[in-house]
Amino acid sequence: MKRTTALVASAVLLSGCAAAQQPVQPSTDPPAGVSVSLGQWRSDEAVHRLQVAVRNTTDTPVYFSDLQLVTPDFATVPPEPADATIKRTQRTDLPIPFGAAACPPDGLPAGSRPATVVARLRTGSEPLRKVVFALPASDPLLSRLLRDECSEHLIKQAADISFGPTWTRDGKKTRATLVLSRRGTGTVTVNSIDGTSHYIIAPERKRRPLVTLDANAQRTETPVVITPGRCDPHAFAEAKKAFLFPVRATVDGGEERVIIVQPPKPQQDRLIHFALEVCGLDG
Q: What is the pTM of this model?
């Protein structure tokens, strides 16, 4: 009986020692006085990027090793290195990419779901630790991005909308084609295509709708004409969205959606040279 009691006591002591040796997991709560929100500049839109706006109301510097957006509404991409020490600030932006929208097969999501910014950071001289910043429910920026991308998704399920391969210089104009290629079902109608901050684009023949891909057709196209929209040197230096042409389209007469169509990179370079020459800025 005494031996049994001793064994039990030893087991309790060993169990207590093992529990005492278990490392304490650091808290994932943000440091006091440090918060984040999301933003997006015009230059971010073309490269599918966000800005994590960090606010630090304390005098203790906070070192950010990396950051990552985590939400069921967008594909999770690897953490983005930051390597930034944030001192007292009302706002310091740290850029992060974000993944493709998780769109329902039909219709649009009602709004964005809960999201977090996950960071590895160090406050003062403490070790690096994982911190989770909760974003407000239905963050307005994420809600807008989700709706925009899922609107595009609905159109792209039915047809691919892109510029054709042929681009022809015609004096102070460049001629191209807008091409609709069958991907799914339904009648796809393009009502209009809009210019950008730098280029005016117009159909060769003014009409509405601009072009329609009938339900039983596989491909259709319509000619468009591109001319420079601005010729001041400052405009060329600040060309953030010069090649993001908005196309307004519908499927089977439904709600009009906006699709962003871009020329391929080699053609973007040629368009820049074309515009500089037409504007007399190539010298």
A: 0.75
